[in-house]
Amino acid sequence: xxxxxxxxxxxxxxxxxxxxxxxxxxxxxxxxxxxxxxxxxxxxxxxxxxxxxxxxxxxxxxxxxxxxxxxxxxxxxxxxxxxxxxxxxxxxxxxxxxxxxxxxxxxxxxxxxxxxxxxxxxxxxxxxxxxxxxxxxxxxxxxxxxxxxxxxxxxxxxxxxxxxxxxxxxxxxxxxxxxxxxxxxxxxxxxxxxxxxxxxxxxxxxxxxxxxxxxxxxxxxxxxxxxxxxxxxxxxxxxxxxxxxxxxxxxxxxxxxxxxxxxxxxxxxxxxxxxxxxxxxxxxxxxxxxxxxxxxxxxxxxxxxxxxxxxxxxxxxxxxxxxxxxxxxxxxxxxxxxxxxxxxxxx
Length: 347
Hints:
By secondary structure, the chain is mainly alpha-helical.
């Protein structure tokens, strides 16, 4: 009874089932079929894996070098422009507008806004010509209102009113235009960081091909042991270990990168929200602009840190390329040498 049960288990074991499935095939044809499947699966897996990984890293690099700095710069420029008017208006209300050296605060904010736009120009495809022109006209009106017309308070008030209108006028003012540009840039950043249907399909294809490659390698090792009495082909064993590594390491690295990009996007949305909440110039003594600028500065630093932490993932790509080449070459060598030694030379 015990012997019969043991025989029954052996007949139902995976090895016996696989042996029975491959039974009708001649050994040579079986090895040649394994060779073709291995090369095809390895080629598909290596191509899909390298393409998908590279596309993911390009998205991360674009977010770090272009999209994120542009969103941060537009937010900083908008807040600096609003703060410049608040500082100049405070001078006027306090009667200090004609005091020597009293305009440094608003001038520094104007300078920050101008420098911010200059830095953004290389990081966005949006047209900044209108905004640059508005900023120059707004700054000119504000400078005239603070430095001229000392004996003409009505003209001074007129210049301040003109600057305020250029700054906050609905839809066409400097602040609304910057807010619109920032929203568009935020959408660009989200699209750049998104995995997307094609990238997701590439990862699925790569993982499925690697899974098929691993199973075929196990089948080839089984055939060599069962039909040829060859244990532990070093080329196939190395290819199997490399296949497992390629199925795990690039995917794990990409998952970590995507997590970092998600955190950076969340912070960029916060920057956009904080910058856009202030639609008009707060009154003198209102600290909302100062608080918003400090929040944007802190959050921008966190974004830079998150995106910098992911730069190590770039070093995984060369290893992925080399591994992709090896999973094509090693199985071809392992089975090719065995076929050549046992069958092809005997023709």
